[in-house]
Amino acid sequence: MKRVLIYLSLLLSFNFTLANSAIKGESNLAVSGTIKGKIESKADKKPIEYASIMVYSLPDSLLITGTLTLPDGSFRIEKLSKGNYYLVAYYMGFQKKMISTLNIDSKTQVVDCGTIILEGINITLEDVDIIEQKNFVEYKLDKKVISASQKMDAKGGSVVNLLENTPSIQIDIEGNVLLRGSANFTVLVDGKPTSLSGNDILKQIPVNMVENVEIITNPSAKYDPAGTSGIINIIMKKNFQKSTSALINGSIGTFHNYSGDFNLNHRTSKINLFLNGNGAYNGSYPYNTMESTFILGDSSRHTSQTESRSQKVTPYAFKAGLDWYINPNSTLFLE
User: Fold this and answer.
1) CA distance 237 to 136
2) CATH superfamily of the 137-240 domain
3) pTM for the whole structure
């Protein structure tokens, strides 16, 4: 009998504890808090629309929810559980504002933050420099214009370096320029022809002497583009000083193949002197083996023939000349 009474007593105590917990849980769930307020600018006292309002829980600082302010600057965040919170208000160009220790419980279900004033961020600039830069490639109606001053990686090189990665231009592994896939193009200097070949003059002229390079793929009637894929017109700087340049190239291949060339150039405001040359040693060693077997009835005959020989070709050429700029419209070429 005593054991039955003890069991009944424990059961009643357990049921009471569950009932008490359920009542407390229902009491917590019943709390649905609200945080409201309004955001204004400190400078003009006007409401700030679309300001960000974020609510964090305490003490773990977890983001619970957030909203944006209405056109009148007001905000209202509802359905918050019982607990402690803090609020952060923010808008671009303004300093963040934090409202701490917002408590929601059964007694305080609506927390009014009132008017929250945001102060603008002031940045003082001492000096402002506005620098205008030209595009590397300027597209005009009848030509493309490459600005030498805008391509920094070509400084110290030749016009060939300036033309790299330019539309309509390709550079082969030997540094020769192709215009629309062809080496048959005309090179002009300040609109006038030169005595050098196209690639020679492009390799000789340093970039620091060049103002612009014009690429004309559809020349007008004032040019004579017959039989060419276009025109490359080099516009020189008008205030350049006298200069001397040298360009030396060399290559080594298999089977004793060697080649090299050089370009020397000295230019003043009136005279341009140049000397260039090229040479090569091309060796080849053909080797042939021929095996033959003849079968006639019960007999057969086998022959073997081996042939080897060596060949070499040594082409070379030199060229020197002078350009005399008599006036802006007249130039004398000697070569």
Assistant:
1) 17
2) TonB-dependent receptor, plug domain (2.170.130.10)
3) 0.40
